[in-house]
Amino acid sequence: MNKIRLFFLLRKNVKLSNKRNVMFEANQYGKLFGYIMLSIFAVEFIALGTFFGWLAAKEQTPEMVLYFMPFLLILDFGARFATQQTPMMLVKPYLLTPISKYSAIECFLIQQLLDSGNFIWMTLFLPYTFIVWCGGMTGWAAIGMLCLLHLMVLVNSQWYLLIRTLVNQHMLWWLLPATFYGSMIVPFFVLSSSQINAVFDFLGDAIAGHVFSWWTFGIFAILFTILFAINRRMQMGLIYDEISKKEKTKLKHVSEFKALNRFGQIGEYLKLEIKSTMRNKAIRARFIQGVCFITFFSMAIAFLDIYRTSFERNFFCLYCFVFFGSVNLTKVMCPEGNYIDLLMVHEENILTLLRAKYYYYCGVLLLPFLITLVPVFMGKFSLIMVLAYLFTVTGPIYFLLFQMAIYNKQTLPLNEKLTGKNQMENKWQIIVSMTTMFAPVIIISLLQLVFSANVAYWILFLSGLAITLTEPYWLRSIYRRMMLRRYENLEGFHASR
Asked: Which of these ranges, 197-201, 273-277, 293-297, has the smallest mean pLDDT?
């Protein structure tokens, strides 16, 4: 079987596998929301491409798109972390088949290159290229520039795949993209305006003189080939390590958290949550990422003159508190699906577990609270603003997120795997996640139209505090509704293990 036939066969198998998935119907809602968001971005990119194309044609500088291309690639790199997974989860079923394992890897890597996400930037590049072509650029030069821009996006996709795989192995690999992109951003904060203009003039002369030369295209083609080969070899080795259970282990001290023994069964479940965060690769990675993002945004707001509008500061203040719940509690009870039968043995066992989870995630919010005190001391945030969003999260937002315990019924692995999936299992996860991120900011904006900022924050603070104090009642209500759906949920947990 040649590679072309193998590619179409594997592509067909992936589509059939997705249709046979027990959550196929629920995932359709996620795709619908994804297509809506993609359509909105496409319209905005067309408008931007048209504007910059008109500006480039007017100034007779068709290479203008390359001036802001680094920023587009940074945005593309960050967006892939939210929308794109590594293709390794598709390889596992074929490792025992008589086909070449490297051929299977290549087919899945090529399939990723042909993914529609890589072509979304064409909505910006095509109108830009068309307008500069109408402005006097030759047809072959326009086609060459279009191919070069798309090749840059493909190189960026391979760079993302490399970083994503390395980060899954160890969090210190985040230093690699941080150093790379930091070297591009830091000069804007270090150099003076005249020095920045001199740098842009130098780069502009270099780009204008060589952007349409064959060696520029050749450099990116070589870079793409190197990254493709590295991904092909590295990910194949990691897949073999995973399926053979090859792990690096070492003896280490295990804390018993004896201080929690006084809280009885809730204390035991608190120990479970803490140890899951410390030992579970997926949860630990999300926790560290959250701390890094929150620290970065808080320090940037505190010491730089950015995010000056009310909406931006409200959004980032809320983001600092809602992050941990948004990424973990949308899939509440999914990891417990591995042993949900044991939790059903004793009465109200699950209710105690839910309470322990609630107390744990409330305790976690002390960390972003301490971090956001820096912008408070610098006069960028007010203390009542921080407290308002803190209790908004512990109250209405956690109330909404814990509702997912009623509807979630797909088991998640207890540890992250390269061959695992990370998709939204049902429509409510998407709706709830989007609501928790934007609804409080919209509400506070509406309140500020009627009242002063401090009065609006006090209203948000008091309403959040009231819902927080009624936690025993609404958690018990959630537990009762879970029990009404227990057989349906058990069937889903068993089918997805």
From this structure: 197-201
pLDDT computed for residue 421 by the predictor: 45
Q: Tokens 């009885």 map to which residue?
A: 264
Q: Is-contact 237 323, C-beta < 8 A? A: no
Distance CA(229)–CA(234), nearest Å, equals: 8
329 DSSP 8-state letter: G
Single out the residue of 144, 139, 127, 155 nearest to residue 210, CA to CA.
Answer: 144
* Chain mean position to CA 158: 17
Residue 422 is predicted with a pLDDT of: 45
Provide the residue count of the chain.
Answer: 497
Instruction: Spell out a b/e string for 381-401, using b for 16 or more CB atoms within 10 Å of the CB, else e.
Output: bbebbbbbbbbbbbbbbbbbb
Query: How far apart are alpha carbons 177 and 163 in whole angstroms?
Result: 7
pTM above 0.85, yes or no: no
Please report the pLDDT score of residue 419 as a whole number: 40
Cα–Cα distance, 438 to 432 (Å, whole number): 10
Residues ≥6 apart with Cβ < 8 Å to 465? 391, 395
Q: Measured between alpha carbons, how far is 145 from 128 in angstroms, rounded to an integer?
A: 11
Query: Mean of the per-residue pLDDT values for the chain?
Result: 79
- Provide the token pair at 43: 């319209």
One-letter amino acid at 166 equals L
Is 90 exceeded by the pLDDT of residue 426?
no
Separation of alpha carbons 240 and 92, rounded Å = 9
